[in-house]
Structure formats: C-alpha cells, structure tokens
Automatic annotation (TrEMBL):
This is TetR/AcrR family transcriptional regulator. Residues 1-29 are annotated as: Disordered. SUPFAM superfamilies: Homeodomain-like, Tetracyclin repressor-like, C-terminal domain. InterPro entries: Homeodomain-like_sf (IPR009057), HTH-type_TetR-like_transc_reg (IPR050109), HTH_TetR (IPR001647), Tet_transcr_reg_TetR-rel_C_sf (IPR036271). One of its GO terms (molecular function) is DNA-binding transcription factor activity. Keywords: DNA-binding. Gene3D superfamilies: Tetracycline Repressor, domain 2. It comes from Streptomyces acidicola. Residues 52-71 bind DNA.
Amino acid sequence: MEPTSLFDDNSGPAAPIPARTGGPVTSPDTTRAKIVTAAADLFTRCGVRAVGINEIWRAAEVAKSTLYQHFRSKDELVAAVLRQRNDEWCARLRDLAATASTPRDRLLAIFDLLGQEFADPAYRGSDLLNFAAEYPDPDHPVRVAIRDHKREILRYLAELAAAAQEPDPDKAAATVLTLADGAACARVGLGDSTAAALAREAASRLLTHG
C-alpha cells in the first residue's frame, strides 16, 4: 500500500508562513523532535485520521515546508510517533521492573505501570491499540509498525519470564501482554481504574511459579 501523502490534506487552507528573521538556528534533530512531539499530542487527543497536516506544523511552530523536509508522508510521521511513544513506554517499564524485588514481580511490573497510568483521569488508552483501530488494513505500514512494537514488548516480557523460571517464557509473555491490553481496554471502556490490579491478580494465578 502506498503511504498517505502529506499533501492529501483536508485541514483547510494553510495560514501564511511567516518569513524567517534573525535568531538562533534550530538543529534538524531538535526540529524533528518538535514535530514528532506535537503530532503525538494531537494524535493522542484527537485521533490520527482527524488531524490535518496544517494543525501539526502550527502546533510544532515550524514552517509547513520544514515539516515536509523531515517527513515525506503522514504514515512516516505516524511511524515516528509510534517509535517515540513505544520507546518512552518501554523505558518506563524497564525502570519500574528494575525496582522489583523478585523476578516474578519484574514480570508483573507491566501491571504496576498500567496502574500508574490508569490513575490519571485523562488516560485515553494505549497508543498502539488506539492507532491500530484507525487502520483496519493489517498490511498497512502503520499496522506493521504496531506489530513490530508489540513483538518488541513480547520479547522483553519473555526475557523476564525466563528469568522468573516460567517453563514456557513465550506463552507467559503472551499471557501477560494479553491481560495488559485487556486492562487498558477496560480502563477506557468501563472507566475502571482497578483494571490493572485485577489483571495483575489474574496473571499471577495463571503463571506457573509463585
């Protein structure tokens, strides 16, 4: 499937781009990060499909032409947002797991992280799951990227499961992630802030080693 062109935008006419004047020059890496951060916030609050490119470059406070220099398509920008969000979330999970006192608790730390997130009244659900819902074609590049990120999480959970002496680490990892995703859906769909604790208890019962 061809990626969605940034020029296929329905967000209305663009505002005039102000001429550049004197002042410090922003590095390309910093500019790219600003664009990704602005897009991530908009996508999370409004949904990917609902956000037009004009909204993104305005929120990022960059020229429209600058955005095009960094991202050739909207799919490419969405993929960058997914990578940023997944990297940040995985880093938080690793940090929290590192504080757990036992290998088993490290494996279950994902539910502790979700519990922290669910306590936020503004919680809008898993970015990976929310983005996937907007792209029904399983072969779409965004869906492929989401699967790659999910597999990355599964590999990490399998490592933790092996350290916890689970006889089938891959199955244990899949069980934990399935319950975690279900908890995220319950938090959004039912408004149940205890969903993470319930899922943790269920995972603890299903895992082999106590």
